[in-house]
Amino acid sequence: MKEYKFYGWNQANVPAIIEKYKGIKTPLDLYDALSEIWCADTCAPRMREQWTPENKTMGQCSITAFLVQDIFGGKVYGILRPGGNYHCYNVVGSCCFDLTSEQFGDEALIYENNPEQFREVHFAKEEKRLRYEYLKKELEKKTGRYY
Questions:
Q1: Which of 20, 30, 57, 80 could form a disulfide linkage to 100, CB 3.0–4.6 angstroms apart?
Q2: What would the pLDDT profile of 90-100 be if each residue is shown by its tens digit?
């Protein structure tokens, strides 16, 4: 089995609840697909200067977490970060994982007792909603499904 570096990768085996994206059966499949899609354009504007192909998960958390929720269900939670922003991750059943945790390097994040996050709040920022829609559209193209 291939080893991943994102938080919770070894338990990220929940099944997709929709079949919209061909080949996306588990969060590992989604991570592999998004690894070829994440780019400076999908990165949060305030973090774009830090984004590199080597640190492709930089600034991708909320749009990725809500896409994960679309495909696998569950809830999105947020870890309060210095500066007042939240780093988003997913919990599906008893499975907790964070496809974008690699952006923090060796920093240990606390994935317990964090507030639930809601797309209505996050997507009130138009630029974030547009980045989410772009990421979703690119995933549809990559998996050969157009809607």
A1: 57
A2: 999 999 999 99
Following DSSP, what letter does each residue of 83-135 receive, concatenated?
Answer: TS-EEEEEEETTEEEBTTGGGGTT-----SS--EE-HHHHTTSHHHHHHHHHH
Read off the pLDDT of residues 6-19 as tens digits, 9 standing for 90 and up: 999 999 999 999 98
Structure tokens at 84: 């007042």
Query: Cα angle at 23 between 17 and 27, to 5 degrees?
Result: 55
* Tokens of residue 71, six digits: 């495909």
Q: Which residues pair with 78 in a beta bridge?
A: 88
Spatial separation of the C-alpha atoms in residues 108 and 7, rounded to whole Å:
10
Q: Which residues pair with 89 in a beta bridge?
A: 77
Strand order from edge to edge, sheet including 75-80: 95-97, 86-92, 75-80, 116-117
